[in-house]
Design a protein that fits this description.
By secondary structure, the protein is of the alpha/beta class. The chain has nine helices and eight strands.
Length: about 210
């Protein structure tokens, strides 16, 4: 499936289920001209081909621009007040001026380039690229498309329906509008997947042991 460039379109992708060759071929298939890396730490223990410097070299051969936006739109923000009990709060992050600058850069970028947001998780629902970034990027004039591991494309509206179903919020409710139910689903998933300093410390201790 090949969707030609339309104004205000942006893709997302999770690299964890791709080899580097399959990843690059997917980008080329969809005529992607720029990749925006939204990882806070642009390195992978299990997929070294996707380490920042290595990836840049791969992409350069294919004339694909690499842009690092993890400092603006990463899930591990270096702002203490954006953490509650050691866990990142996506709503607080979204209010930071640095994050908003990242969103503005994306909005400007899609006017000129076919862009893909890249992070690790294969399912967009499980990644901050969707629950944090796309939540704040979505609007009636922007089409968001997720490139999935099986080669298909999922429109963000379908992703949101899956998200609502995940929390049993997909059915009409007497007290909540559809928009309110969607926001509640975003909140719940954000709480579930947000970066936790306590969890990170535990994982490092396990590795040491």
């Amino acid at each position: 499936m090949n969707i030609h460039k339309k104004k205000n379109m942006i893709y997302t992708i999770g690299y964890s289920c791709f080899s580097i060759d399959a990843f690059v071929n997917t980008l080329k298939e969809h005529q992607i001209k720029a990749i925006v890396d939204v990882r806070s730490v642009p390195y992978s223990q299990f997929k070294p081909d996707f380490n920042r410097e290595t990836l840049i070299n791969y992409l350069k051969k294919e004339n694909i621009v690499y842009v690092f936006l993890g400092d603006n739109c990463g899930a591990r923000i270096d702002v203490p007040e954006c953490y509650i009990n050691g866990k990142a709060d996506y709503k607080l992050i979204s209010k930071q001026s640095n994050f908003q600058k990242g969103i503005i850069r994306l909005r400007n970028g899609i006017q000129k380039y076919q862009i893909v947001l890249m992070c690790a998780e294969k399912d967009p629902i499980s990644c901050h690229r969707t629950i944090l970034i796309c939540r704040n990027l979505r609007s009636n004039d922007i089409q968001i498309l997720h490139l999935l591991c099986n080669g298909t494309i999922e429109d963000h509206k379908i992703t949101e329906k899956r998200l609502m179903k995940l929390y049993n919020l997909d059915q009409p409710n007497l007290f909540l509008t559809e928009a309110q139910r969607l926001e509640s689903a975003y909140d719940s998933q954000g709480e579930k997947i947000a970066y936790s300093e306590n969890k990170d410390i535990h994982q490092r201790n396990v590795i040491v042991v």
